[in-house]
Design brief:
Elements lengths: L1 H8 L14 E4 L1 H7 L1 H30 L2 H48 L3 E4 L6 E2 L1 H8 L1
Parallel strand pairs: 1-2, 1-3
Length: 141
């Protein structure tokens, strides 16, 4: 999820007015996401899903060790299919959560940029620009 947010944050550019004096700002994406409850919940959800997948793999291995050779291949294929399905479902849900979080982040950045009169907002440390991370966090709430 973090990769999705960082990659898409690079396109967070808000042009407010062509007539206004150029005013730049930065937003620390990692910091904002660390303070955003929805992002924290998504991260915790993902960690739980990873733990569940690891448990599934451990249990499948233990079951396969006890399985007679004649049935082992069929069971192994069944477990592999089930693991792939679980992993794919997790990826789909992670992507959906990431898109939702980014849409809200993007809207908060745009609201903050417009309110502050910023012509350009870029992630991280852009020298000479104002960090608007705290205002973005307020607009996420």
């Amino acid at each position: 999820m973090k990769k999705l947010l960082l990659a898409t944050a690079l396109v967070v550019v808000s042009a407010i007015s062509a007539n206004a004096a150029e005013k730049y700002a930065t937003v620390n994406v990692d910091y904002v996401m660390s303070k955003y409850p929805a992002a924290q919940q998504a991260t915790e959800w993902l960690k739980k899903q990873e733990v569940e997948l690891q448990k599934f793999v451990v249990n499948a291995r233990q079951d396969l060790e006890k399985t007679p050779e004649a049935q082992k291949k069929a069971k192994e294929e069944k477990y592999n299919k089930e693991l792939q399905t679980k992993a794919m479902n997790i990826r789909k849900q992670e992507e959906a959560k990431g898109k939702e979080i980014f849409a809200k982040f993007d809207a908060a950045v745009k609201t903050t940029a417009k309110a502050g009169g910023y012509t350009l907002v870029v992630p991280a440390a852009f020298y000479g620009a104002t960090d608007i991370s705290e205002q973005v966090i307020k607009n996420l709430k």
